[in-house]
Amino acid sequence: MNLHYDMIVIGSGPAGKRAAIQAAKIGKKVLVIEKNEIVGGVTVHTGTIPSKTLRETVLFLSGWRQRGIYGRSYKVKDHITADDLKQRLHSTLGHEIEIIQHQLMRNNVEVEYGHARFTDEHSISVLQHDGLVNHFTADYFVICVGTRTYRPDNVPFDGDSIMDSDEILSLKRIPKKMLVVGGGVIGIEYATIFKALDIEVTVLETNDFLLGFVDREIVDELIHHLRDCNIQVRLGDKISTINKFDDGKVVVKFDSGKSMAVDTVLFAAGRQGVTDDLGLDQVGIEADRRGRITVNEDYQTSLPHVYAAGDVIGFPSLASTSMEQGRHAACHAFEADVASQPELFPYGIYAVPEISMVGLTEQECNKRHIDYEVGIARFRETARGQIMGLREGMLKMLFSIETQKLLGVHIIGEGATELVHIGQAVISLGGTLDYFVQTVFNYPTLAEGYKIAALDAYNRMTF
Ligand SMILES: Cc1cc2nc3c(=O)[nH]c(=O)nc-3n(C[C@H](O)[C@H](O)[C@H](O)COP(=O)(O)OP(=O)(O)OC[C@H]3O[C@@H](n4cnc5c(N)ncnc54)[C@H](O)[C@@H]3O)c2cc1C
Question: DSSP letter string over 334-359?
Fold first, then answer.
């Protein structure tokens, strides 16, 4: 069998799904190749949706959102078990997979299950699960193969006490003491989610800082919160050895000479592009040592008819941005209008409390020599925040002193990942401080923080 398509997309995660549907909407014949038995990619099976479902379950069962009102010992359910945490996962994931399958079908995107490899610049072989090999050709390709967890040799993963971020979803029991290795987005999310279950949590990060791409003031707020809820943060240190003993204890030694005993290690320090068995050598496309492919601003690789999108091209490695990259690649290939604005991609970190941002940070403004003024609102200053019992949370806006234009929005606290879209819309449309001063916001809402922060910036500005 040898079939020809306008576009072949490798991988059915967010980037692949969106690239394929976009090409189909332009009227092209599209094939998605997926090596798993089910579509969806990391987002559906081990990443975004499972971790956010787990977060929601933990926040509900632990009564976290009510603790500001009823005290730190408030709980909806005593003795939360690992099964309690998994219950909600199955129904959410099943539903999500159905939606993706339906979207692909409705748009006439064909799906082939098996491992895809390039055999030449326009040909792909697919090794199916039953051992059969099919061959396909196409005018254009989009590589959306994503990443897998990075598992270094000095970490003796056992899927029980020493796990990566995929395995944590099959947690058999709720640990008492946990070490989270990696202070990136995934590590911080899981550390704070497990802390909400009153587990003793330590975060280990090799760098001297957390979340390098986030505005420093927001990171300071986060660190203050982590310390306030007794999460230990070890910066600038590394794992030297990990040993598991018969009584189930895991002893971790650090490069600094310190050591600690825990019952669970979650290793969440980095991911690796899945490009090692893709036949890239057959077509002369190179991947770096982390398996990532370099692309231009239209997501073309060194071969112009082969695009790459999503986590396989590196930062920001989010489902949201992967989808847009996939859409952009398909539009570019078939000369459809496309105007993505990567500089206005919002970033969401679903820690507890959540963090979200769009536009420039203070550090970037300084680097670019932009004169700016800051306006800040604390959620506890809003009536809604008081009603919700919020002790933490802040919304920060940066405005250009010269043009009054909104340059960046940085939020930490309840609803941050939703609230940020107001700021995103205003920045995209070139809005100024005046918009927030003149506009009426619903009351009581957390969105009112925008007005408070704008007035704060207004008061600080000398006109
Ligand atoms: C724990 C965790 C939490 C996350 N939380 C968030 C979040 O809250 N918000 C957010 O926006 N993002 C989040 N992400 C990131 C998000 O999951 C990824 O950005 C997104 O899945 C990347 O999409 P993708 O399409 O590039 O790749 P993937 O989703 O990784 O999909 C790649 C697909 O390609 C397939 N494939 C690979 N090689 C081949 C081959 N040779 N042949 C055929 N098929 C192949 C794979 O089987 C897979 O299905 C999270 C990630 C993790 C791990």
Answer: TT------GGG--EEE--SS-EEEEE
